[in-house]
From TrEMBL:
Higher taxonomy: Eukaryota, Viridiplantae, Streptophyta, Embryophyta, Tracheophyta
Enzyme Commission number: 2.3.2.27
Name of this chain's protein: RING-type E3 ubiquitin transferase
Superkingdom of origin organism: Eukaryota
Chief localisation class: nucleus
């Protein structure tokens, strides 16, 4: 049996004990030992065993002595926990193979060689009739008087081999933990690389899609060019002019408008076109509960890249939007958050914002001064601002009524003195002219329109000084009940019979009504319209037909319909035209779709 390494916790009491003086007086020695043990027990020199691993004692059958229960009995009394002999080696006497005790006859004791036995067992071993007394384990010579009782509260034996095995296992665990940490770190790095390559793959897929769109676009241009050089197609027996042919003397070879591109623009209600920079700026509301209001900049060049520009907190919905006509890469927009803001389309940030006393419904750049701007408010007043004075506006002028000003235009009026600027505004009360920097700044109503109803739209072309105002019938609450049976019944939002009025300035404060035509206009929303000047040889008025959801192009001043551009039966929210040296851009915004038309192929 291998020798265990023994650690002994020695008690605080005296450990001295009287041993027999000679081997011959063994009986006398035994009596003396018994007396000494009884005295030690009486005096308290033998402490009680505290270790939970010491086995309980029971009365022996021989000599009234006390012996320990066997390992098997311990296993039965240990609530089903069976101990192996190797697990508790060092707690048993190697002679009788039973556990020693801290008192009585089988008291734990040791020899000078260090081996431990029960006192009764080693005594019998040494008292046998042998000439040479030796240790049962190492055969070292010893006598009975060399036996020493051990007075200890606990004795724990640790197997050296097991200890080494435990240390080896602990080292292996540490090594495995380090390897696991390295593997986890490598896995995290590989995940980062995988995410990076996935992003790279998505970017390449996007570029591939853009190249495909550009290829299709170039193929479309080649097809248009080939058809232009050949014979134009015919429709219903009448020949449709191609891009290079004349539509008539009024249009000087520009031809009808053709659909060039459809863009998906969810949540958009307003837009404007910058023909010089070839970009479109849209006012949108992102989808979702409490959607955020943004401005979206979209390129007019394939593959039509777009970027959302977040608006400052508190801006709310944008009611009007205009890109600076002087080409300074600035955009002006008015919002219901009582803000008039200027955006830089180069850095895509708001560079200037004015606080207003009321929500803004409209805005405009001054045609004669690039640093002066205007805002039409919900309370019917109009504000004048100089962007060189960022702290406050130049002036706020009250309107004739408190109706919201839904449209304003800065006009060219060469008949006024130098330094005087003119602004046209539209509200449900009608069209008003405002003169600033002069002696009279209070607006006056343009009476030449006549009693057409409530003004819902105003279009102005600075190149030709043509004005077209749109009207719908007024709702008279006093006679609404009495005349309800006589009025035609129509669904709300389906359109009513209104009118378009064409005006032109003849003097500084006088206008001439050139023509009036009937039109299907919206009975709830405020529609948008535009006046286009084609190479200074003719003017077209563009508006939406509320019943057919078509974009109608009419010649001015006769209001002759020249072209109807079909849509997908969606109401038209906004119409804008931008003149360019290689042909004009006409945009039509409906629900979720922006259609781009041109009288020349987009470059």
């Amino acid at each position: 049996m291998p020798n265990p390494i023994v650690y002994i916790a020695v008690g605080s009491e005296s450990e001295e004990e009287t041993e027999p003086e000679s081997e011959g007086n063994s009986g006398e020695t035994d009596e003396q030992n018994s007396e000494s043990e009884e005295e030690a027990e009486a005096e308290g020199f033998i402490p009680v065993m505290e270790s939970p691993r010491v086995l309980p004692e029971k009365e022996g059958e021989e000599g009234g002595g006390r012996i320990c229960s066997s390992a098997g009995e311990v296993g039965e009394n240990s609530q089903g926990n069976e101990w192996n002999r190797g697990d508790i080696d060092g707690l048993f006497c190697t002679i009788c193979m039973e556990a020693w005790t801290t008192s009585a006859d089988h008291h734990v004791c040791c020899l000078p060689c260090g081996h431990i036995f029960g006192f009764s067992c080693i005594r019998k071993w040494l008292q046998q009739g042998r000439t040479t007394k030796k240790c049962p384990q190492c055969n070292r010579k010893c006598t009975l008087k060399d036996v020493r009782k051990l007075f200890a509260s606990r004795i724990v034996a640790i197997d050296g081999e097991s200890q080494k095995r435990i240390q080896s296992l602990e080292s292996e665990c540490i090594s495995l933990e380090q390897k696991t940490a390295v593997l986890i770190k490598n896995e995290a790095e590989w995940r980062k690389k995988e995410a990076k390559w996935k992003r790279r793959e998505a970017l390449l897929q996007q570029q591939l899609h853009q190249f495909k769109e550009k290829t299709n676009y170039l193929e479309h241009l080649l097809d248009v060019q080939s058809r232009t050089l050949g014979h134009p197609p015919s429709m219903g027996g009448s020949q449709v002019p191609s891009l290079g042919q004349n539509l008539g003397s009024e249009f000087n070879g520009q031809g009808p408008f053709m659909l060039q591109k459809e863009l998906d623009v969810d949540g958009a209600r307003l837009f404007d076109i910058d023909a010089s920079s070839k970009i479109i700026l849209l006012a949108r509301r992102l989808q979702g509960l409490g959607g955020t209001h943004v401005l979206t900049k979209t390129s007019l060049v394939a593959p039509y890249m777009r970027e959302d520009i977040p608006l400052p907190f508190g801006t709310k919905a944008v009611r009007d939007l205009h890109i600076c006509p002087s080409g300074s890469s600035l955009a002006l927009f008015a919002s219901l958050g009582k803000k008039l803001s200027v955006l830089s389309t180069k850095i895509n940030q708001v560079t200037l914002a004015y606080d207003l006393p009321a929500p803004a419904w409209s805005c405009s750049w001054d045609l004669n001064s690039s640093h002066q701007i205007y805002a039409g408010l919900q309370n019917g007043s109009l504000g004048v601002f100089d962007m060189r004075q960022t702290a406050r506006p130049l002036d706020f002028v009250n309107g004739l009524t408190s109706n919201p000003i839904h449209t304003i235009y800065s006009t060219n009026n060469p008949t006024l003195p130098s330094g005087v600027t003119t602004v046209l505004s539209a509200s449900s009360a009608g069209i008003c002219q405002w003169n600033f920097s002069g002696s009279e700044q209070r607006p006056f109503l343009v009476s030449e329109v006549g009693n057409q109803g409530a003004c819902i739209s105003l279009a102005y072309c600075p190149r030709s000084d043509d004005i077209v105002a749109s009207f719908r019938p007024r709702i008279d609450n006093s006679v609404e009940i009495a005349s309800s049976q006589a009025l035609p019944i129509h669904a709300l939002g389906q359109g009513v019979q209104g009118s378009h009025v064409h005006l032109k300035r003849v003097e500084s404060n006088c206008y001439q009504k050139l023509a009036v035509t009937c039109a299907n206009v919206n009975d709830v929303r405020l529609p948008r319209s535009a006046v286009m000047n084609i190479e200074n040889d003719g003017c077209l008025f563009v508006s939406g037909n509320e019943l057919t959801c078509e974009l109608v192009l009419q010649e001015l001043p006769s209001f002759t319909v020249l072209q109807c551009l079909k849509s997908q039966k969606q109401p038209i929210y906004d119409v804008k035209y931008a003149h360019a040296c290689d042909g004009g851009f006409l945009g039509c915004l409906s629900e979720g779709i922006l259609r781009l038309y041109s009288n020349r192929a987009l470059k």
